[in-house]
């Protein structure tokens, strides 16, 4: 597969590469593609959640926060 990169995209790649956070421009592209996959997965999850809410399968916010507080408290307890 061949890919033509426009001068504008090349400039963006170069700018990001020069930050020193990546070993190569290819690493920049890999990271960008991974983030796009994550974004698409998140969109699918959100749409699924909205469909579940439409079917009445939601959980009350107070219940969610109680569960989160309980889990946070358990995580803060020292392991024996």
SSE order, one letter for each helix or strand: HHH
Mean of the pLDDT scores? 93
| Low-confidence region ranges | none
Main sheet makeup: none
Radius of gyration: 21 Å
**Global shape:** flat
Protein topology:
Blueprint: H1 7-17, H2 25-54, H3 61-76
What descriptors fit this protein?
80 residues, mainly alpha, 71% helix
Provide a compact summary of the structure:
With 80 residues, this protein is an all-alpha fold.
How would you portray this structure in words?
There is one protein chain. By secondary structure, the protein is an all-alpha fold. The chain has one domain. It contains three helices and no strands. The longest helix is centred in the middle third of the chain and has 30 residues. It is flat and about 50 Å long. The chain starts with 6 loop residues before the first helix and ends with a helix.
């Amino acid at each position: 597969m061949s890919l033509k990169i426009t001068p504008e995209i090349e400039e963006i790649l170069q700018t990001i590469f020069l930050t020193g956070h990546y070993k190569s421009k290819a690493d920049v592209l890999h990271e960008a593609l991974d983030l796009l996959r994550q974004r698409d997965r998140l969109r699918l999850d959100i749409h699924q959640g909205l469909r579940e809410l439409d079917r009445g399968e939601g959980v009350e916010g107070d219940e969610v926060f109680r569960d989160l507080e309980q889990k946070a408290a358990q995580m803060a307890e020292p392991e024996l």
